[in-house]
């Protein structure tokens, strides 16, 4: 470890060659290397708190036989070694993280996020086609994620968050909005194609701007408002030309957009100053949403409908239906967990771009896997809406 002593501006030493008579007429000033400018390279001298004593004194000079008679004779003499400032430590700057490693890490996050989301949507649609009970399906997704995190905390795989009553109070409105948005999106996908649901959900920025403008009084730059035109126009074009249009599915996606906007607003307001990681934050959010959703799911659908539908699905699909249910529940939690973890590592702008690309991957993959019929004008509407979402993310930042 290198430790350097701070040099005082006056740390300069001169002395004179005097003639035998002690006259200072033939002074010749010779600069000596000040001790305060010497760097200590020994590992034993790792501390910067080095106390330096003066290099010389009047009495010591007289002992050198320089013929100095009195202190007046050395009025020109300056001895400038001073005590180092012991109040400051020398801190070596940390080595910056290589840019290539950071880009690779972000790329892994995005690839994992998109892949998990695509797999979830595929299995979720398979389950809903055979078992059209979106309230129970939504409940199982939250229950599975909550169980996974409780096991992780109990086995010390993940560190449990330190929370208090204020944390859970601030989390409650976020959980309410998250529950509504989750159920509404699942209801939508039970009625229409996955691609159509995600095309409508790409219009979430429009809801965000409108809610922030008219309910919160926030204003935005003109480019932000202009970016809403292709978003709204593209979603409208895609909805009008959708071959499998269903009003419940359409309204479910719209309600999901509105709910997630309020979730983001409540989250920003309530989580200021809270030091909970993205992974644990989503785990707590899932647990509270599960408590909120369970009684409503029982009231809307009920155990009797669930049992009858379960038997029908098993008879039609076979034992692999159980795997579908388990997969959609596990992958729902994993993709949301990775998205929240990504927020800890990347900027909001990068996250918005990643979210836009995620919707493209889900739409394209669902069309290919489920052979969803799509018209060219419908595809054009989807492309315009997604382009508008991308422009919004750029203008917003």
UniProtKB/TrEMBL annotation:
GO cellular component: chloroplast membrane
Listed InterPro entries: EmrE-like, Sugar_P_trans_dom, Tpt_PEP_transl, TPT_transporter
Organism domain of life: Eukaryota
Gene Ontology biological process terms, A to Z: monocarboxylic acid transport
Major location (coarse): plastid
Pfam families according to UniProt: TPT
Domain Sugar phosphate transporter: 104-393
Segments passing through the bilayer: 106-123, 135-154, 222-241, 247-266, 278-300, 360-392
Membrane topology: Multi-pass membrane protein
GO molecular function: carboxylic acid transmembrane transporter activity; organophosphate ester transmembrane transporter activity
Keywords assigned by UniProt, alphabetized: Chloroplast, Membrane, Plastid, Transit peptide, Transmembrane, Transmembrane helix, Transport
Compartment list: Plastid, Chloroplast membrane
PANTHER family: SOLUTE CARRIER FAMILY 35
NCBIfam families: tpt
Protein name: Glucose-6-phosphate/phosphate translocator 2, chloroplastic
Organism: Apostasia shenzhenica
